[in-house]
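Narrative progress, year one. The postdoctoral researcher (J.K.) led the effort to move from monomer predictions toward full complexes, under supervision of the PI. The following entry was the first complex the group processed end to end, covering 320 residues in total.
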Amino acid sequence: MHDSSAVATHGLRHHFADMEQQRASATLGMWVFLVTEIMFFGGLFAAYLVYRTAHYDAWVIGSEHMNFWLGTINTVILLCSSLLVALAVHAVQVGQNRMCAIYLWIASAMGVAFLALKGIEYHAHFVEGAVPGALWKLAVPDPRAVQMFFYIYFVMTGLHALHVTIGVALLAVIGWHAARGRYSPVYYSPVHVSGLYWHFVDVVWIFLYPLLYLIAHKKA
Amino acid sequence: MAEHVVSRKTYIVVWIALMALMVLTAGLSRIDLGEWSTVVAMAIAVIKALLVILFFMHVRYEDQKITWVVVIAGFFWLGILLALSMTDYLSRGYLGVAGH
């Protein structure tokens, strides 16, 4: 067993007074970063809102070309992976590094599954010609407005997929550190802040799912 | 004081609520609710996001007030971005909205 005073300060960086201040700073710093991410995606949500208001009928047509089931399955995958990341934080808080690593690795693998399904969707859009620009083949009324839907769809889901990709790598690496016993019930901020990042990615998808996939069946 | 340890039971109850809301919003999208459909879908999305933020992201258990300030300020500024953009677009006749 470790000496108790050594355990209490394990992982403490010299510029912090104590573990609590270090933990609080890490949480606050991560939230400041996430606020910049909210505004980053916020600009795209604003663009979505403006064009949707201007071209509602085109938005319904675009939404009809979404794969409802793939979108729904991907929502389930992200919600489940978020639960696993929350459980990983619980595991490390009670000193179960091994369980923490397993939860993080399964969540990371679920992120890969999400990206694979997203790739299948993108491939279907390319085959169908639902790609704005030179590859556009869809015969729809008001093709310019429907292309605008697909521009916004590809940018929003593409940026989200980039975040998922970063999250997959992050969870895998943090899981590896956890498996090597780098964290303890007093020092686990990397697990917590990586978890915050993953949950944020989940929150973005919680809004993308109804906004992109669930419009078509709702025409007033 | 170390960070609050949230029980596994709490996480699992929150996850069940999230899954139920997901099934609800997917199911409701198949029913024609008229102009309420978007309102209902967004209300469900906001509840889901709040569950994730308050419980999974531990904001509910955060005893540091400054974290609350940062989180609320972030969403408040997002609200300004969306609301003021739309007041501009809707009031200047840039968009072909009914009644204009």
